[in-house]
What does this fold into?
Amino acid sequence: MLVRSPQAALQRLFDEVGSVDQIGIDERVAKYATRSVKKASKLWGLRTAVTMVDLTTLEGKDTPGKVDSLCQKALRPHDDASIPPVAAVCVYPSMVRHARRALGNNSAVRIASVATAFPSGQAPLKTRLAEVKAAVADGADEIDMVINRGAFLAGEFGRVQDEISAVVTACGAAKLKVILEVSELETYDSIRAASFLAMRVIRPSDFIKTSTGKTSLNATLGNNQVMLEAIRDFYLDTGVAIAMKPAGGIRTAKQALTFLIAVKETLGDAWLNNARYRFGASSLLNDLLRQLDKEKTGAYQAPYYFSEAAESY
Amino acid sequence: MARLPITKTPKFYVGGAFIRSESARVFPLRDSDGVFFANIPQCTRKDLRNAVEAAAKAGPGWAKRTAYNRGQILYRLAEMIEARSDEMSAAIGLGGSTPAAAAREVAAAVDRLIYYAGWTDKYEQVLGNVNPVAAPYFNFTVTEPMGIIGVIAPDKAPLLALISLVVPAISSGNTVVALASTTQPYPAILLGEMLATSDLPGGVVNLLTGFREEMIPTFATHMHLRAISAVVNANERKMLALGSAESVKRTILLKSEDKRDWFATAAQSVDAIRDTLEFKTTWHPVGA
It folds into this structure.
């Protein structure tokens, strides 16, 4: 009798896309943190990181007022006008229209909206697609969707891909970011496999994204590296360039620079811009500004001089 | 059988951990006879930056402790030093103090701790106030800790002077990043070990070792330090005053030329606690 087995299905997929040497990846990324980045490169990295931030607020207590102030901060992160605006603001679908009102129609800052029953994805497909369409209709430029992890772990890869395809269609002109939620995929092998499943159905320059930021483990250098290498291998195979967004847990400028080193050394300069690489973060921007100020004035800065760094001690 | 000699690697105390300088630099410490004793970490401005981050992390929790609890913890620190007073005396003796003079300094340092441990839940009654106003309001003045305080200790009295500068600041809920004596850093290294066993949360007191001329410019300009309490010469005073004006921090600068007597009763006072306090005055309507 034939019995379907998720393990066998996963194994076939691993055999096809290649598995990951976990120790090798961990050793590799440990080296990134030892690179010494000096003055001019550091300044360039910090400024580039600012332009890559998806300034995020995803809380139950979000209000139109809070989204409005987030948008103002995204447009003009610092009183120093030479600091560029961030890439996008990232909000819940109900806040998209408020963000659109705050930013206007021809803004340098894009509007990203999480959709598809973020963060769990546990809603009927019809509901998820309706949410995507509503967010796009309200003015979202980019949609962050979550994949169906339950289907993935059950070995139902066709279903995972069909759902992503349906969301691609629902997006229309909006860019798509596919959240793999790496902490629920458990292993590097699964992360690589899920990356390939997603990359095969999304459009060139759509994103794959590590996490929702709502679980215990978020973006790490390790799973960022696995996904970057998947993007590299996919690009070498097909010539299609997929973009990448680590999200959650990246709070310091130093971390951001280390992630940029990983991008530079894995994918090269073509990925060092906000069309190909983003940071999903809420507090990272303030630390970037703080370090930019330090580079400018030569004096170490206090966090309470930067907005929303509420800690006043 | 002859034992292998166990030599100690002195490390400085930051964020509750004993660490080496991020630069990996050290400088040799010799005793008063010129015999090599140990290599002492030579801290850099980045070590100072990291210490300030550690102090910022520890600050809110320390300031939230009850005044009584802070007093208990300072008292326990005194217990820890008292129990290892011979070792501490020997550390002070490296600088050439006679055993009797060194023992006297340790005893004075312990007494100073007890003095400020007693003040933690009493200075508010002395420094705070209910102010008379000509309207139906209560008008209170209460104190609050400033935040992170930079301390630069003098070379003389390496334990007593350090304690006399650090302890009044932390007694009210501030946290401290201190640069120990350059010529006699070893007592501060030992003090770190005693702090670690005293129930004082990690990061409340951070003790750096190194060279004054390397560290003072960063102490002066660091925006996150709210005040500087230091014993400094004329050049250093100028540098600290200029940097502090830029970063708007309070300066409590004692002149190293003055040859202050740290043993004197005058060297301890509630005024030293007041030096690192902010005062907040609030109006409150008188109830029916």
